[in-house]
Write a structure and sequence with these properties.
By secondary structure, this protein is mostly beta strands. It has strands at residues 2-3, 9-12, 18-22, 30-34, 40-47, 60-63, 67-74, 79-84, 94-99, 103-106, 117-120, 127-130, 137-140, 146-150, 160-162, 169-173, 181-183.
């Protein structure tokens, strides 16, 4: 558990698969997890990380170059994180989001080039997802969620969008390939 971290931090160990980031409000920091176990799952719990005491966004970066899945749980106060795996990373393929707290996540699509699935369908807090360009499946839960979905550059690859309940804002960038599905769920949604 990193509580009130106020500087860049590196945590090393093959067994590190759980990280809790709390009350990180002072500055924008990077927490680097160095786990030599390939294709592991990083379970990331955030609580009050990524906003200053005045409520101004100051995203906390969590970096793990060997994680295949990042499972984020948002609890307590709202959080704002950037998930980084390093330049041109092809290991990180799946993200899941759960929890009841408001959460903003930057998925760094420039570097996370293999991230295909973001599943926040069990989350009940409001989600704001950015830099999701390579993901072909995006699902969110019961909160008022905001995200953009982009068509795959491969014409035969379809997209699946399900924003769940809540008053969601979903932006389609560049259209979607034939056979893609969009389900906005219950609520006053904007497409």
């Amino acid at each position: 558990v990193l509580d009130g971290v106020d500087s860049d931090t590196t945590i090393k160990g093959k067994s590190i698969t759980n990280l809790t980031l709390k009350n990180a409000t002072a500055t924008t920091n990077t927490v680097t997890v160095t786990n030599s176990t390939a294709n592991h799952t990083l379970n990331l719990t955030v609580d009050g990380a990524g906003y200053t005491a005045a409520g101004v966004a100051a995203a906390q970066t969590v970096a793990d170059a060997t994680a295949k899945t990042v499972a984020i749980t948002a609890t307590g106060s709202k959080s704002n994180v950037l998930v980084s795996t390093g330049a041109a990373n092809t290991t990180f393929t799946t993200a899941t989001i759960a929890g009841s707290a408001q959460l903003a996540v930057n998925f760094d699509s420039t570097n996370n080039t293999a991230l295909t699935s973001i599943d926040g369908s069990t989350a009940t807090g409001n989600l704001t997802l950015t830099n999701t360009a390579v993901a072909t499946t995006i699902k969110t839960g019961a909160g008022n969620d905001t995200f953009t979905v982009t068509a795959s550059s491969t014409a035969t690859v379809t997209s699946t969008v399900d924003s769940g309940a809540g008053n969601d804002i979903v932006t389609i960038s560049g259209g979607l390939n034939a056979g893609s599905t969009i389900n906005l769920g219950a609520g006053n949604d904007t497409l």
